[in-house]
Design a protein that fits this description.
globular, single chain, alpha+beta, Beta-galactosidase, Chain A, domain 5, eight-stranded antiparallel beta sheet
Length: 363
């Protein structure tokens, strides 16, 4: 029942406005600014001397639940699916330890409870809650990761494993880097002193998730994720509402393996790069994670993270026009990865991505 509510959680979107802030305890109001000023990472806890309570650092991009409905959703997401500790919940929400403990008790959520699985045989796909860095290494290349582009996908063989996909991690164009899902190199907007507002995924009853961001110059990009039994189908749409002709539109699509038990080796020796796919093999050699995008520009991996990349490229996009690329994530058990990649490449979802017209619709 709880997992059904988590996955079909358009209920959250539809009901949140009917449960005003009065439903949330007054103790959930933001803490003093002096405390916020000292919090600047997603990781770690600080111990207060003299046997005092251990407190989590509140991240710059902590997302404090605004309603009782949101609070319940995110606590269930963090505890039942991601197995968060108290400190990680504090870091993700910006709540104090006492607030978290009280909320868990009031909601009847047990930190030691069993992981929940999906229903109907489909893959479990939920928004990544933040509070735990999705990388093992190269952390200075992803400071303050933003959760509105990240989804967790759970393999069918292990309810305590998950892969975090960043869709998109970055978008490049002839204007420069017009979007980056964390802090690292300067972007088109940071160079102009413009800060992008935080967003959240929209969760629908059929299990699909979507996110739309309109950039200050009028360019909009929209991501859709459609979970299925055989895999997760993804689409990124770009609408050029600016006055600029956009070219060299390269997109970084990252699949991070930190949370996947048996796939966490920081090497590319366990990976296959065969555009339009990248795939990672488990330590026991008979399980695979498969990541793909069309039309593909580059397939690669970053060992320190570790992660898989298949980075697509949009056709040039004049003002007023739309472009689309499509992606795929699936899990495979077997030893014939070459045949499996060939099979997936013929899936209509990916084939259609090669037949879009310049307006971003099927020819």
């Amino acid at each position: 029942m709880i997992m059904r509510w988590l996955l079909q959680s358009s209920f959250v979107d539809e009901v949140a406005d009917r449960h005003p802030r009065r439903a949330v305890r007054s103790s959930m109001r933001p803490r003093a600014m002096s405390l916020l000023l000292v919090c600047f990472t997603w990781a770690g806890i600080v111990a207060v001397g003299g046997g005092a309570e251990t407190k989590s650092k509140i991240s710059e991009n902590a997302r404090r639940p605004k309603t009782e409905t949101e609070l319940r959703y995110w606590l269930q997401n963090m505890v039942y699916l991601h197995r968060f500790s108290l400190a990680e919940i504090q870091t993700a929400t910006g709540m104090s330890r006492k607030e978290v403990e009280e909320a868990l008790e009031e909601q009847g959520i047990d930190l030691k409870g069993k992981p929940w699985r999906g229903f109907g045989g489909g893959l479990v796909v939920v928004p990544y809650p933040g509070g735990r860095h999705p990388r093992i290494g190269f952390l200075d290349g992803a400071i303050n990761p933003q959760r509105e582009t990240k989804l967790s996908v759970f393999p069918p063989w292990d309810p305590q494993s998950y892969i975090v996909i960043d869709v998109p991690e970055a978008i490049w164009s002839n204007l420069g880097l017009i979007y980056l899902a964390h802090t690292h190199v300067p972007t088109y907007w940071t160079q102009r002193g413009v800060e992008l507002e935080p967003l959240e995924w929209r969760r629908r009853r059929d299990g699909t998730l979507s996110m739309d961001r309109k950039l200050p110059n009028g360019v909009t990009f929209s991501t859709r994720a459609l979970p299925g039994v055989d895999g997760v189908r993804l689409e990124l749409k770009l609408v050029n509402g600016s006055t600029n002709h956009l070219s060299d539109l390269r997109v970084q699509m990252c699949a991070m393996l930190k949370g996947m038990n048996g796939f966490q080796q920081q090497t590319n020796a366990n990976k296959v790069f065969a555009s339009p796919f990248s795939a990672c093999k488990s330590e026991d050699g008979n399980r695979w994670v498969i990541w793909g995008w069309q039309p593909a520009h580059r397939a690669w991996g970053n060992p320190p993270v570790p992660c898989l990349h298949v980075d697509p490229k949009f056709p040039d996009c004049p003002p007023g026009q739309t472009r689309r690329v499509r992606g795929w994530l699936s899990f495979y058990e077997g030893d014939d990865i070459k045949s499996e990649l060939s099979r997936i490449e013929q899936d209509p979802w990916l084939l259609e991505a090669l037949t879009f017209s310049e307006e971003g619709v099927l020819r």
